[in-house]
Automatic annotation (TrEMBL):
Its main location: membrane. It comes from Akkermansia muciniphila. One of its GO terms (cellular component) is cell division site. It catalyses: [GlcNAc-(1->4)-Mur2Ac(oyl-L-Ala-gamma-D-Glu-L-Lys-D-Ala-D-Ala)](n)-di-trans,octa-cis-undecaprenyl diphosphate + beta-D-GlcNAc-(1->4)-Mur2Ac(oyl-L-Ala-gamma-D-Glu-L-Lys-D-Ala-D-Ala)-di-trans,octa-cis-undecaprenyl diphosphate = [GlcNAc-(1->4)-Mur2Ac(oyl-L-Ala-gamma-D-Glu-L-Lys-D-Ala-D-Ala)](n+1)-di-trans,octa-cis-undecaprenyl diphosphate + di-trans,octa-cis-undecaprenyl diphosphate + H(+). Coiled coil: none annotated. One of its GO terms (biological process) is peptidoglycan biosynthetic process. Belongs to the SEDS family. FtsW subfamily. Keywords: Cell shape, Glycosyltransferase, Membrane, Peptidoglycan synthesis, Signal, Transferase, Transmembrane, Transmembrane helix. It is a multi-pass membrane protein. One of its GO terms (molecular function) is lipid-linked peptidoglycan transporter activity. This is Probable peptidoglycan glycosyltransferase FtsW. InterPro entries: FtsW/RodA (IPR001182). It comes from the Bacteria.
Length: 380
């Protein structure tokens, strides 16, 4: 398939997921405690989707290579926004996590940081593409580039986003040629670090213990996953029908956000959940097709990163809802209620569209070349 066909398929499956998301938000969010009007969540989610699509349209018409001139400023700005989560009066703590800031409006800087991290990581790996097998240039430096903002997100107690971003970064490094032994060692080190973090935090430890014995913790830390399993089993093959979910009526907390996959399975059954999974996999497959046909190394790595920051959180969210992994609090891209994730995920797809549009005409003098190890020359 041509890159244009692949990009059309990406957007086709994204629109399918958006439609499913709007339907499920309309069905579940009306019963949430904070909802004042039954149609308020649907109106908000529709507005977020429109804003994200407008942002995607704008980014799709801007040559993605232009942003490389400002890449370190972009990454620095993302880190600055993450630091603001800890500033009193600006950062806001919700459910024990400091993910949000309020500057005119409330949003999650980590969602913005995802794309910025991938842009910086792709830039470095493309710049030093002839040294990606070395320990320093192909592993340590890229690790620092995504590790600093990742640490800021982790300190927000947002372990789910941190794990998903780490997996996405490793995907890009693997494609770029980083040696497998380095990535394997990093996985082992990350696993050890996660174990220490879980053991040192009572809330995380309780979630882990609940995952190991869900029935014993069904009224405590395991409540969400326990009720989600009931919802999925009740849905069976065909589901109970749109609007007929029982778990969304308060027994399943956050049924319209992090655990929206459970009422989706309850209302549309096994076939509905498989349709959603198929959309994610085919969207990812088509996105990788765009990356493989990209003539620009930076664009190829960035395309892989964009696809990964959508696919990894989606799979982790579904794994949490189906109790395959401990509860980590991740939204389901395009489907969960929430503005920041939806807007920035669609914006990232706009940049993927830009890669498909402009990479086919890439010429050698449009690349960033390395003059030496301290400076780069951008020739556009």
């Amino acid at each position: 398939m041509s890159s244009k066909v692949c990009m059309i398929l990406v957007w086709f499956f994204v629109i399918c997921l958006l439609v499913v998301g709007l339907v499920m938000v309309s069905s579940t969010a009306a019963w949430a405690e904070e909802t004042k009007h039954p149609y308020e969540p649907l109106f908000k989610q529709t507005a977020f989707a429109c804003a994200g699509l407008v942002g995607a349209m704008i980014l799709s018409r801007i040559d993605y290579r232009i942003w490389r001139k400002y890449i370190w400023w972009i990454l620095g700005g993302a880190c600055f926004l993450l630091v603001l989560c800890y500033v009193p009066g600006i950062g806001k703590e919700i459910n024990g996590e400091r993910r949000w800031i309020t500057i005119g409006m409330q949003f999650q800087p980590s969602e913005c940081a995802k794309l910025c991290m991938m842009m910086a990581l792709a830039n470095w790996l493309a710049l030093y593409r002839d040294r990606t097998t070395s320990f320093w240039w192909g592993f340590v430096m890229p690790g620092l580039i995504f590790g600093i903002p990742l640490a800021l997100i982790l300190f927000e107690k947002d372990m789910g986003t941190s794990v998903a971003l780490a997996l996405a970064a490793f995907c890009v490094m693997f494609v770029a040629g980083t040696r497998k032994i380095y990535l394997g060692g990093a996985f082992a080190l990350a696993g050890t670090a996660l174990y220490v973090l879980v053991q040192s935090n009572a809330n995380r430890l309780e979630r882990f213990l609940a995952w190991k014995d869900l029935d014993a913790h069904r009224l405590g830390a395991g409540l969400q996953q326990y009720r989600a399993s009931i919802a999925l089993s009740r849905g069976g093959l065909d589901g109970v029908g749109l609007g007929n979910s029982a778990e969304k009526h308060g027994t399943l907390p956050f049924a319209h956000t992090d655990f929206i996959f459970a009422p989706l399975g309850e209302e549309f059954g096994f076939y509905g959940t498989m349709f959603v999974l198929l959309c994610y996999f085919l969207m990812t497959y088509a996105g990788i097709g765009v990356a493989m046909q990209c003539r620009d190394t930076y664009g190829r790595f960035l395309a892989v990163g964009i696809v990964a920051i959508i696919f990894c959180p989606a799979i982790l969210n579904i794994a949490v809802v189906t109790n395959a992994v401990p509860n980590s609090g991740l939204p389901l891209p395009f489907i969960s209620f929430g503005g920041t994730n939806l807007v920035f995920t669609l914006a990232a797809l706009g940049m993927l569209t830009s890669i498909q549009r402009f990479s086919t005409g890439a010429q050698p003098n449009c690349e960033i070349t390395r003059k030496d190890e301290r400076s780069i020359d951008v020739r556009l």
